[in-house]
Every structure is written in C-alpha cells, then in structure tokens.
Amino acid sequence: MNLSTEIFGAVMVIHTPEELGEDQADSVRDFLQTRERNKLILDLDGTETIDSVGLETLLDVQDLMRERGGDLRIATTNHANRKILEITRLDSMLEVFDSVIDAVKSYA
After folding, report:
1. Which residues pair with 19 in a beta bridge?
2. For every one of its 108 residues, what pLDDT tens digit does the chain have, with 9 covering 90 and above?
3. Which of 14, 23, 71, 89 has the most CB atoms within 10 Å of its CB?
C-alpha cells in the first residue's frame, strides 16, 4: 500500500485510505512501520469507515513510534471519525487535533 504523505521537517503526515478496517489494517501498519521518521500524524479526513481492527492499528503504531522515541498524533475534522474516537475513548489515549497544522505544531 502506498499512502499519500507530506513532510514538515521531522514530522510526516500520512493521509489514510477511505477505509481503515480489517482488510487495510496490515498494509497500513506495514506502511507506517517502514517510515524513516518516527513523528507521525495520521490525517483521517479522507477515511469514511474505521472498524475495531483499524482502531487497534492506530494504538499499535503509536506504541511502536513511542518505542522509537517518537509519537503518533491524529488530525481530523471528520465528525464521524471524531465521534468514533470519543465513543471508544481512544481520544484519551491518542492525541487528536482539529487540523494537520495544529498536529504538526504540537511536535514543536
């Protein structure tokens, strides 16, 4: 899987696929684990559906980035995705921002 990315200094922004579920989770995890930067931001605005396996992937990648001395942050203005993160209480485990720019600035 090849996802669209942007680089802001030491931070990489990754735009997630339309679906982040069981069928895509392994490919997304593999893609994120092979990035040379360890400060990642996942932009979930283009993602329409996220299932439990997709959510678990977010936590797995966050753990890996923290082991490498970095972190994973989430950016989304998508109301449905924000609600999923709130309902599952992942918004208390992952740092969630309203914009990619705010997420990038948080690494400063």
Report:
1. 49
2. 789 999 999 999 999 999 999 999 999 989 988 888 999 999 999 999 999 999 999 999 999 999 999 999 999 999 999 999 999 999 999 999 999 999 999 998
3. 14
Residues in the chain, total: 108
User: Three-state SS across 3-35?
Assistant: CEEEEECCEEEEECCCEECHHHHHHHHHHHHCC
From its phi and psi, is residue 7 left (phi > 0), alpha (psi between -120 and 50) or beta? Answer: beta
Contact 23, 54 (CB under 8 A): no
Token digits of residue 36 = 């040379």
Secondary structure of 31-56 as H, E, C letters:
HHHCCCCCEEEEECCCCCEECHHHHH
